[in-house]
Each structure stands twice: as structure tokens, then as C-alpha cells.
Amino acid sequence: MVMGLARLFGNRQWNRGFTLIELLIVILIVGILAAVATPLYLGYIKDAKTAEAKAVAGSLWTAVQSNAIASCDNAAPVSEAFPKAGLSKDGATSPARWTATGTGTVTVNCATGAITTSAVTVFTVSGVAAATDVSFIQVQMNYDSGKNPPSRLKCSTDSGGTFVDC
């Protein structure tokens, strides 16, 4: 009797694999998930690269303020803070992914602590063209004593076309 049941159930074709419809449904679900996840992933990548530029700008702004405080009532050139921020004398990072440019000066009044700058845009951190994954990112440090807060980071992810608050 056991042999008869084994022959009876052994000839059935229903346990041989997936049907074409089942495979198409799985492929459709995976395609929808990929279509939704790809733009989110690309946005996360752009945000991470912008955060890297903001970290360079933050260390440079700290070094600029430190130099200005040390020179007390005398104008401190932004470019003198490059080595203190971990940049080369030309304002480049190592490895060469970011470059900082700033030709202005920052002055700190020793009596009041008030900061004045020679230009609203104190410096700009830009992605190096050789590093194509960040070449489209720029971050500006703007200082305007009439605004609250006076120092603001402005970010651009379209090669400097449009700057918005970071």
C-alpha cells in the first residue's frame, strides 16, 4: 500500500518549482523596491559628501577665529588659518578632495569680542575637479554682523549655481 501511495504522489508535477506568474510577481516587487530606493540612496550620498565639505568649513572657521583672536584688533588673513585647519598653505586637503579659497580678513575687537570681516563671504570650500564625486559641491562661510546668527554656512550642490542655508 505504501508503494502505491508513493507512485500516486510521485507522479504529480505540482512540487517541481515556481510558476511563471510567481516569478514575474517577485521580479515586479523587486523592481518597485529598486525604483523607490535608488533616489533615496543617491540623496543620502549627496548629503554625506556635503557633510564632509561642511566639516572642512567648520574646522577652517574655528582656525580663522582663533587666528583673529590671537592677533587682537588686527586683521588676520583667512589664508593664514589654512595650516591650522589641517589644509596646505594653498588651502587644499590631503588627499586632494577639497580646496578652500579666502582672500579676506577677520578682525576681533579685544574689548568687546565683536567680529568684523572684510567681505560677507569669508571663504569657500569647493570640491576639487579631479575628485569627480565631489566636484559639484561648494560650501561658503558668510558673516554678516547684522543678522542673527551672524555666521552662516551656505551650500551648493550644483557647482555654485544656487546657495542655500545648510
Kindly describe this structure.
There is one protein chain. By secondary structure, the protein is α+β, with helices and mostly antiparallel strands. It has one domain. Helix content is 37%, strand content 20%. It contains two helices and eight strands, in the order H-H-E-E-E-E-E-E-E-E. Strand 7 and strand 8 form a beta hairpin. The radius of gyration is 29 Å and the shape is elongated. The model has no long low-confidence stretch (mean pLDDT 90).
Structural class: alpha+beta
Count of helices?
A: 2
Basic shape: elongated
Order of helices and strands: HHEEEEEEEE
Beta content: 15-25%
Would you identify the regions where 5 or more consecutive residues have pLDDT less than 50? none
What fraction, in percent, of the residue positions are helical? 25-40%
Q: Would you count the extended β strands for me?
A: 8
Radius of gyration: 29 Å
The main pleated sheet reads as: 5 strands, antiparallel
Terminus-to-terminus distance? 78 Å
How many individual domains? Answer: 1
Q: Provide the spatial order of strands within the biggest beta sheet.
A: 2-5-6-7-8
Mean pLDDT: 90
